[in-house]
Every structure is written in C-alpha cells, then in structure tokens.
Fold:
Amino acid sequence: MLGTKQFLMIEEISAEGAYLDGKELGDVFLPLDEKPEYLEEGDNVEVFIYSDNQGHPCATTKAPLAQVGEFALLRVKQINKVGAFMDLGIAKDVLAPYNEQKPKMREGYSYLVKLYLDNASKRLCASSNLNKFVNKTPANYEKNQEVDLIVAAKTDLGYKVVINETHFGMVFFNTVFKRMYIGQRMKGYVKQVREGDKIDVLLEKPGIEKISGLGEQILAKLEENNGFLPLGDKSDPQQIKQAFSTSKANFKKAIGGLFKQGKIDIEATSISLRK
Structure:
C-alpha cells in the first residue's frame, strides 16, 4: 500500500537500482543509492512506498516521519500554485493541497497534519483540517482512563489535544504543570466526558495513585541530591512545577505521606531524608 513501510522482495537489480515486487502495485523502483550493498535478488528489504512526480510507485529505505493514516508535525518547505510541500524526511515531499489547509500554511512553519491517500490522484497527501478525521465515533471513555495525546492547538482555555487519534479533548491551563507544544505526544487521563462528547483531560494521574507515584519521584530525587531538596511546604509553586511538573497541592500531599511513613523530615522550604 502506498504511504506505508513494507518488506518487499528484490526481483531485479540494474545499474540504476532495484525493482521490487510491489504485488498489486506492480514493480516498485528503489534507487541504487538507497539499496543496501549486501542485498541481492530474491532478498527482502524494508522500504517506504510513495509515488514519484509521474505517479509511479517508488521506494526508499529512509524512515519517513509518518505513514498514511498517522498524525505528524511537518514543516512546510515550499508553497506553489497547488499547495504546500512538507518535509516528510525522505527525498519526496508530501503535498498539503490548499483545500486541506486549516489554517492556511506558511513557508518555514510546522503544522500538525494527518497523512491520507487522495482518491483522485492515488498519491500520499497531508491535511491540517483535522476535523475531517476526529470525533467521528461516540466518545466512550471511562473516568481516569489512560489515553494517548497529541497536542493539536493552543486556545484561550488551554490546549486542544487529539485523544487516541480519534477524538478532540481539552487540557485546561489550570491543570498544566509541564511544557506543552504543538505535535507533542504524551500520556493523559480522562477527567470527564461532558454533553456533546466534550472531553476534559488531565496530564497527571488522578487520586492516590498519582500521589504515590509522585512520592517515589521525590524519594529518587532526594537520593540523587545527598538526601536534601530545597523545596518544602512554603516553597514557591513555580519552583515545584519546574522540579516535578506538578502542582503545589499534590506536592504537599506527597511529602505529607512520606512524612507519615517516617521517610522524610519537612521544613518550610526544604525536605530531607530521615536518617
């Protein structure tokens, strides 16, 4: 299938390159400088398949930044009358047609896109009109369910994220305790699914499990720093955020739990391992 990585058999090797058995695609050409020297006719080689400027199937052994059906943050290298050409990490750029650009793209900028096969040209293309690809099924998520996130946009309320590559969600600013940027991938947790399948997402594991995990991080950091950290009950929330990517409230709960377990001593602006 075009736009995917596959293992194909080398049928013939010529002075220009190798011809691979592309099955329903027919012969797929792999340039000579892309063919590993040790491979011979009859061997299998892993390649990424794309179309050249004439629409013929070609192959590369270079790893693309994304395959068909996947999301990726790609940079616009050039814009012409047909659309924006984006760097896919291989010799051939991928086209984002004008009618698939939302917002309109600018040269040198990067955009979160999804790769798809154009029905008319049968070529691999990119679209930043993500509304075409998400929220097409009911949002059947459980509270506190762990999900995969891709940061899609920054809004007035927080960060719009793609959940499990199928739904949009929102991470509100007041729950963000780490740096976030467009295209970033991370784990998250469903806080709630509101009316209209609007999904609120947290970056931190809710409840006692989160506090327990944070406590382990704090103990590990204390061990790394000779049993002492200049963070305590009265420390600045920004310092805590920078050190542990969490809120001051969660930090205080975690160190309180460690104190009750007899593992640390707490001062106003510091904690230390109990000897």
Observations:
- DSSP finds three helices and 18 strands in the chain.
- Residues 207-224 form the longest helix (18 residues).
- Residues 5-60 form a domain with the OB fold (Dihydrolipoamide Acetyltransferase, E2P) fold (CATH 2.40.50.140).
- The first strand starts at residue 5 and ends at 13.
